[in-house]
Inverse folding.
């Protein structure tokens, strides 16, 4: 199966983007691209965000203090072309 792609310009304003494991927004990605600092960008799916929030909730309900890092894969992400 080939990797799905999308053009940065075609993404809606406010789209969440994975840049080196950090979630940023479209306007931040555009700035990184303009400065030549973006190497690989991927969309962040709503499903991934939902699972991340559910994981944080479950951790807090079980008495854990939580983590700043959520590393589950996002099977619905698309590589961003710019």
């Amino acid at each position: 199966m080939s990797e799905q792609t999308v053009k940065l310009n075609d993404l809606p304003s406010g789209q969440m983007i994975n840049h080196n494991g950090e979630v940023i927004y479209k306007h931040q990605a555009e700035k990184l691209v303009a400065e030549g600092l973006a190497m690989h960008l991927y969309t962040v799916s709503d499903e991934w965000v939902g699972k991340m929030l559910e994981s944080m909730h479950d951790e807090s309900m079980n008495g854990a203090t939580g983590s700043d890092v959520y590393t589950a894969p996002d099977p619905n992400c698309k590589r961003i072309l710019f």
